[in-house]
Amino acid sequence: MSRFNPTVPVEEYLADSNVMFYLCDAVTQLLEHKEEYTQFGVIRYFAEYFSSVKNSNHILFREYSYIKATPHNRSSFIRVFWRCYRQIGKSGDLLSMLEYRSSRIVLMDDAIDCLMSFSDFLCAFQLQLYYQEFLDSILEIYQDLLAGKSPNTVIVPTSTSIEQLPPVAAEENDKEEQQQDGVETATLAQCIEALCDRFKHTYPPRSCIETF
């Protein structure tokens, strides 16, 4: 959770830090396990709950929907995951994709037989987990561009997108895109830039995106 900044409006801080989400979950857990938690006091229960959130231990034994609910939960899960399995492949051994239970999360179906180090797998896994919504949106944009369609999910008034081209030019552009095996890098980059301007979920720093 982010630290409180007195220059940030309270409403904005509560939204960015997901305080209400954790408060609702704390109350829900208290009601579901009332007999257990009320034995040592409600005040102590809330103190320990938010202490565990701060220390990133709150995601232990929790369901996947809870883990992916906030950026802090996702990063906490990745931190704990790394601590638990850091010894795997430490000597540089390469493991097959069949040895990774979640290999399909980070690789295409035709790459299942390839070998990968655990550090590389973890890097791909944590990027997929933390930025899932952003990566899904980029995939949708790429597929739309590849099919010659306008990526309506990222259209903004100031964008010089395909949708704003004159009818004849747009038609010629569609034909050109359909004949290509891939998508023009500049067009994809422009769409991703527009996506960042209006994306409501977490996405990587733009400097990192521009590097790729």
From TrEMBL:
CDD domains attached to this UniProt entry: DD_C11orf49
Regions crossing the membrane: none
GO cellular component: centriolar satellite; microtubule
Keywords attached to this entry: Cytoplasm, Cytoskeleton, Microtubule, Phosphoprotein
UniProt subcellular location: Cytoplasm, Cytoskeleton, Microtubule organizing center, Centrosome, Centriolar satellite
Top-rank taxon, per record: Eukaryota
Keyword Cytoplasm: yes
Task performed by this protein: Regulator of the tubulin polyglutamylase complex (TPGC) that controls cytoskeletal organization, nuclear shape, and cilium disassembly by balancing microtubule and actin assembly. Regulates the assembly and stability of the TPGC and thereby modulates polyglutamylation of the microtubule, which antagonizes MAP4 binding.
Assigned protein family: Belongs to the CSTPP1 family.
Protein name: Centriolar satellite-associated tubulin polyglutamylase complex regulator 1
Organism of origin: Mugilogobius chulae (yellowstripe goby)
